[in-house]
């Protein structure tokens, strides 16, 4: 291999590495995951205190990006210790048997400046579904900030069994919201 061929090969290798996604370090203190739902027609927002979010992101080539999210279902905080214990029980998240809710992306595509469409598999309480949702991304200094929301039906994941299947008390519609701050 001559010098010119080596230079071309090194340049191409450098371009492919620059275009590939990079794993970002999530700032857990600045990142939030919450669920909003209605109980007796009153909106309630609860936060998950424990989550692990891994984002492998390239602004130049978002289709090379990927994300995984793990949420500790027993970490849901409704603002009341008794209610927090209740949602960890078998009728709700069954956190003893299903300690994690997970999302794994299967595709991330540009949807315009600062906007992405994310598709993937959401698994809660042993039930999986293919989902797709919009996501905004913006640079904030060295950080990337990702914001989005994903509407789901809780009964599709058996969240609220037995008497809790009745949606008159707790609505079926739930919106999972997330704000993720991450840096290279």
UniProtKB/TrEMBL annotation:
<dbReference type="InterPro" id="IPR036761">
    <property type="entry name" value="TTHA0802/YceI-like_sf"/>
</dbReference>
<keyword id="KW-0732">Signal</keyword>
<protein>
    <submittedName>
        <fullName>Polyisoprenoid-binding protein</fullName>
    </submittedName>
</protein>
<dbReference type="Pfam" id="PF04264">
    <property type="entry name" value="YceI"/>
</dbReference>
<feature type="domain" description="Lipid/polyisoprenoid-binding YceI-like">
    <location>
        <begin position="23"/>
        <end position="183"/>
    </location>
</feature>
<feature type="signal peptide">
    <location>
        <begin position="1"/>
        <end position="21"/>
    </location>
</feature>
<dbReference type="InterPro" id="IPR007372">
    <property type="entry name" value="Lipid/polyisoprenoid-bd_YceI"/>
</dbReference>
């Amino acid at each position: 291999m001559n010098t010119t061929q080596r230079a071309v090969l090194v340049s191409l290798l450098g371009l492919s590495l620059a275009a590939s996604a990079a794993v970002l370090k999530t700032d857990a203190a600045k990142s939030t995951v919450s669920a909003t739902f209605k109980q007796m027609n009153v909106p309630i927002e609860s936060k998950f205190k424990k989550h692990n979010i891994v984002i492998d992101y390239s602004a130049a080539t978002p289709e090379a990006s990927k994300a995984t999210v793990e949420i500790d279902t027993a970490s849901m905080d409704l603002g009341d210790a008794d209610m927090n214990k209740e949602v960890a029980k078998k009728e709700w998240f069954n956190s003893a048997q299903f300690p994690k809710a997970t999302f794994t992306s299967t595709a991330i595509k540009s949807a315009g400046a600062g906007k992405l469409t994310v598709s993937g598999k959401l698994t809660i309480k042993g039930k999986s579904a293919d989902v797709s949702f919009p996501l905004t991304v913006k640079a904030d200094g060295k950080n990337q900030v990702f914001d989005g929301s994903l509407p789901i039906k809780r009964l599709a994941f058996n969240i609220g069994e037995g008497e809790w299947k009745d949606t008159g008390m707790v609505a079926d519609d739930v919106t999972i919201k997330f704000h993720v701050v991450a840096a290279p």
